[in-house]
Each structure stands twice: as structure tokens, then as C-alpha cells.
Design a protein that fits this description.
binds zinc ion, 5 helices, mainly alpha
Length: about 100
């Protein structure tokens, strides 16, 4: 039986969560990778963007994430070993000189 449950308890639970149409900073942080990957649904994306308009903290967070992602991409990129070119050029220059 469910007698122990007050009939209107659901109302109090709602104070914990925000309105369905609002994104909290914590929710945004959880979604931020999807946001960068463009994986958010259009509806969610617009909520996120609305949140960014009014939340400086999350804007700063996004900027930091962008910087982090950019540096991670640089690291993970199979970048052509840069020394090779200049080394070859130096060798060629030496040989050409003689
Ligand atoms: Zn926020």
C-alpha cells in the first residue's frame, strides 16, 4: 500500500529541479561536450544558448573548454614531424654548397 505517502508530495520535489525549459550551470557543464560536438538536439541547443546569453560563468567555461580542446587537438594531431623538413633543407643546403 502507499498510505505513507502524502498526496501532494510531488509539489515539493519540483523545487529541486528547474523548469523544464531552463538549463542550469551544472546541466550545461554535463552537456558541454555534446555542445561542442554539435550533438545536442536543436531544442536543447537553443536552451543552452539562451543560458549562455545570461550566464557569464558558463561563457567563461566554454572559452576555457575551447582552449583546452584546441590544445588537445594540437597534441593528438598526427602532425608531420616538423624537424624533417628543416633538417632536409639544411642537408640540401650543405650539399648544394659543395
Ligand atoms: Zn551557467
Amino acid at each position: 500500500m502507499d498510505n505513507s505517502r502524502p498526496p501532494h508530495n510531488g509539489h515539493q520535489d519540483r523545487e529541486f529541479s528547474v523548469t523544464a525549459d531552463e538549463v542550469t550551470c551544472q546541466q550545461f557543464v554535463e552537456m558541454v561536450t555534446d555542445y561542442f560536438e554539435g550533438a545536442l538536439e536543436p531544442h536543447t541547443l537553443s536552451q543552452v544558448e539562451e543560458h549562455l546569453v545570461m550566464c557569464d560563468w558558463c561563457v567563461t567555461y566554454v572559452e576555457q573548454m575551447q582552449a583546452t580542446i584546441a590544445s588537445l587537438r594540437e597534441l593528438s594531431e598526427p602532425s608531420a614531424p616538423e624537424p624533417t623538413d628543416s633538417l632536409l633543407a639544411a642537408l640540401r643546403a650543405k650539399r648544394g654548397g659543395t
